[in-house]
Amino acid sequence: IAEINTRACFMEKEKEKYIPLVACAHEIAQVAASLAEEAREIEKYADSLVRRPHSRGGRLKVKEKLMLPPVFDEEIYQKWLKGHKRE
Length: 87
Description:
Number of domains: 2
Helix content: 55-70%
Number of strands: 2
Structural class: mainly alpha
Order of helices and strands: HHEEH
Strand content: under 5%
Number of helices: 3
Distance between the termini: 52 Å
Shape: elongated
Strand order of the largest sheet: 1-2
């Protein structure tokens, strides 16, 4: 979108060229927003999502369930490791 807008606003001089470019960028932004909203609805319905926020100290966290708080990556890794150890 930024590339299209840059071309439309700063490179094209003829309105027959820059107006369709700006309209195109606007349409792309609208479709992207619609798809993002649809993805959020799917996540809510399935109670599954993936977010990777960080703590105040900068450590990465993982959030995989809508109603549960995020946990540190190390915790997820340790759970995975326990489940995959060979005995």
